Amino acid sequence: MNEKYLETLNYHQRAAVTFGDGTARPAPPLLIIAGAGSGKTRTLAHRVAHLLALGADPRRILLMTFSRRAAKELKARVENLLAGIGSSYPVDALDWAGTFHSIGAKVLQDHALAIGLDPEFSIHDREDSSDLMNLVRHKLRLSETHTRFPSKGTCLSIYSRCVNSETPLADVLQVHFPWCATWEDELKGLFSGYVQAKQSQNVLDYDDLLLAWAQIMEDPDFSAFLGSFFDHVLIDEYQDTNRLQARILMSLKPDGRGLCVVGDDAQSIYAFRAATVRNILDFPDAFAPKADVITLDRNYRSTATILAAANSVIGEARDRFTKDLWTERNSSERPRLVTNEDEADQARCVVDQILEDRERGLRLTEQAVLFRTSHHSGPLEIELTRRNVPFVKFGGLKFLDSAHVKDVLNLLRFHRNSRDQVAGFRVLQLLPGIGPKSAGKMLNQLTESAEPHVTLATLAPPKAAHQDWPGFVTLLSSSTPWPDQIAQVRAWYEPRMEQMFEDAEMRKPDLLQLEQISYGFASLEDFLTEMTLDPPDATGGHAGDPHKDEDYLILSTIHSAKGMEWKSVHVLNVVDGCIPSDLATGTTEQIEEERRLLYVAMTRAKDNLSLHQPLRFYETGQGKLQNRHVYAMRSRFLPDQILGHFDQIAPAPRGLARITPPTINTMDIKARMREMWS
Ligand SMILES: Nc1ncnc2c1ncn2[C@@H]1O[C@H](COP(=O)(O)OP(=O)(O)OP(=O)(O)O)[C@@H](O)[C@H]1O
Which sites bind ATP (predicted)? Predict the structure, then answer.
């Protein structure tokens, strides 16, 4: 066999890729601990390619990644590797590659009838789920209680955490939401109402995709059937899976044969979504004999100085597998720790440096600015816009969050499942004269009907909607085949959009883009599932359309920067209150996760890394007089003893120049004050 593709791997990577008995037969369980930049993606892609080269059946490989982007990238890499050895393996047949949630949706869709689900079920994203939670909350009159009942978002977070961490409500409240603990009984009632509402509307939420999957896996016949369907199960980013996901995996491959998980405990950053680093730490002991562990600790990405600084930050963490990373990429340039006066000064300083680097030949796409929370980039976005620097932001408002795109998707969803009250509530109100009250009434009639599509045509809308109603009913009962449906919905929606939004013209290209995206999907069902589970998440900045200008800067939350790398990286607001976020300093676990976040940010950099520390933040209060400056401390993750790894830079304080006092002749102020009264 031509194994040329193995030549580019180092010793440990090769051991991970070829682990097994040299055939395509399922190998014993394997954990690959892959430090940042150690070639995790490369190793995983090579392992899949290697298995295929040995004769594994691609349709019997289950490959689960953290994002759709990662699954696509892996498939492309496998294809390249195989092409490199002149193989014509049908990579397309790797159709069980996707996120945990999308694979869950597929399993549930394939077996819906057998498990008592209507196969036409809709999938709700987080926003839809919190809307439905809110509807139930109102129905149960919990919003009317004297003391403030938790908001819809908090209720959903509590619910989600109970489900994903498989923890009783009382414990979740005590540990994570102590301020809601007095509402335990009401929350129980709310969650029970929420589950009933989902079931009567034929809706599954994001968490249900895992929960229902885990529940059917409890049937020994089903889990044996599904387990035998796959010879190889490979999981990427295992450090960010939750207990439910681990349970699914263990019931899929109880003896671990064919199971290979890859991850880095030092990069576990999703505990706030109930991911648990214990999954990866406990993996070897879950099997008898224990799973093999192969560690990749050679970093190919960053210079030695960047790595030394990152190692020093993570060095303080407790409980971890990964040894310190090492590299052969030497550099005399240390990472920079830049002190700025305030956020505006930080923004100016970052843009100055970025433009200077561009002059030196570093394209904007090779540079990134990372931050803990989406709103931290506000002042920077203003500065970039002012200075005409194009940028794309990841992790902020998603394309699909914009009202017009949501309207179109909900029209499609309601067309598919007219029991879906959240979709119905939104689209009915697109018609003149239909407000929340009449929409609610009409939806109740639909939910109670055995044939909602037929009932829809018989409903009596308010008078103002009479003219538009027949067209609406025709649209929703149309049997136009996919993907022409989306063009039909757009044609119906656009005239309404023109009435609703002043900037309708600017919004039209988004709908066209959505239509274009839809052409890549075989069915409406597949399209809606993917758009809900893994929506495209870049928004163009105001500073020009980055698609027209090929070179643009990347702005990203640290979470969304997972798995990425750039030559130069700036990290904003490395101060206490931002990293660690002041919302996450309750428990040691939370603080540890924040430390790992900073580590993830730092290890994205190949050649240059700058951490920025503004001294002051401007806080806006409720009244004018409450606006004030607060002073920030350097992040606790950069204690004095590790500062030696950084070049500390305090740039010329421009702001101060404005307030530097003029030289004045010596004056005896005290004497003059006394003189006033003498
Ligand atoms: N054996 C190798 N030889 C040369 N370069 C390598 C090798 N393995 C990995 N690299 C390079 O190292 C960089 C990091 O690789 P990759 O993106 O696969 O890392 P990763 O482990 O997934 O990173 P992270 O977990 O930090 O996101 C890439 O630029 C990749 O090309």
Answer: 34-41
